[in-house]
Amino acid sequence: MMVAVGLEQMLEYLGHRVVASAAGLEQAQHSARLDSIDLAILDVNLRGKRSYPVAEILAERGIPFMFSTGYDAARLPSPYRDAVVLQKPFGLDALRSAIESMR
After folding, report:
1. What's residue 57's pLDDT?
2. Which domain holds residue 79?
3. Which of 36, 46, 93, 97 is most buried when burial is the number of CB atoms within 10 A of its CB?
4. Half-sphere exposure of 15 (CA within 13 A, CB side)
C-alpha cells in the first residue's frame, strides 16, 4: 500500500490525475473494464496474482499500459515482452521517462 501511495504522489507531482488504484486483481479488472483511463501502470504482482488479465482488458480497450516490477523484465510472457517496464525500485525521473516514452 505504501508503494502505491508513493506512486500516486509522484504521478500527481508530474501533473497527472490518478483515477483508480487497486490492491487486488479483481478490483484492478473492474477498474480496467469501467474507468476512463488514459494510461495504466500495472504492478506485475497483485497480492500473489499476476496482473496479465488486467493488461488483456486494457489492450482490448486500446488503453496503453506499462508494468512495474521488481522481477526481471525478460520473464514477462511473450505478449508483453515489448511493454514499457518500470524496474523497481524507480524514482521520479524513471517514471517521467517511462510515461513520455508512451506518447
Report:
1. 98
2. 2-101
3. 46
4. 3
CA angle at 73 for the pair 69 and 78, rounded to the nearest 5° = 120
pLDDT digits (tens, 9 = 90+) for 14-47: 999 999 999 899 999 999 999 999 999 999 999 9
CA atoms within 13 A of residue 38's CA, in its CB half-sphere: 9
State the CB neighbour count (10 A cutoff) for residue 2. 6
Q: What is the CATH number of the domain that holds 17?
A: 3.40.50.2300
Q: Looking at 14-51, list the stretches that DSSP marks H as alpha helix, in order from N- to C-terminal side.
A: 25-34
Domains: count for the chain? 1
Cell 496482473 -> residue = 51
DSSP letter, residue 49: E
- Radius of gyration in angstroms for the set of CA atoms belonging to the chain, rounded to a whole number: 13
